[in-house]
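The data are quoted verbatim for completeness:
=====
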Amino acid sequence: MDIFLIGIISYLMGSVPFGFILTKIFLKKDIREIGSGNIGATNALRTGNKAIGYSTLVLDIFKAVAPVIYVKVFYQDFLYIASLCAFLGHVFPIWLKFKGGKGVATYVGILFAINIYFGIIFTISWFITFFISKYSSLSSLVGAASIPIYLLLLTQFDQGIFFTIMFVLIFFTHRENIKRLKNKEETKTKIY
C-alpha cells in the first residue's frame, strides 16, 4: 500500500503543469500555442517573460524535490519509485491529456534531492555545454548523460542503472530536438 500511495502522490505532484498555469494566469495565453508548444521552462522563456520562465523552472524543480526528499527521509526503500513517478508526472500529466514537458527541470530536482553532488555535476555539465553551443536541448542531454557515466566510473552500478534509465527517458523526450540538432535546425536559447 505504501509503494502505491508514494507512486500516486509523487506522480500527481510531478504532474502539476506550472508553465501552463503561469502563462494562463499572467499572460492569458496557452503555452502549448507558443514556441515549441512545450509546457516546460525553456518554452516558458520563449513567451518573452523571463519571470514566468524562471518561475516555471523553480517550480518544476521543487515539485520533484518535495516528494523525493519526503520519501528519502521516511521511506528510503521507495526513493527511486518516487523519483521515477514524479518525472513521469511531468512528462505525462493527467491534467493535460498526458502531454507534458521534457522533464529536465524535474530531473534536476530529483538529482539534488537524491544527492546534491549529482545536481552539481548536471548543472556544471549543462552550463559548459550551453555556453559552447547555446542549445538548451543539447545541454540537457549532455547533463543527463553525465550522471550515469559518473556513477558507472565509480562502479555504483545500482544507481548507475537507474540514472541510465532516466537518461534514456530524457533522450526519448528530446527525440524531435535531436532530429533538429542533426539537421542544424534547432533554435538557440537565450537564458538572460
The radius of gyration is 16 Å. Residues 2-182 form one domain. The mean pLDDT is 93.
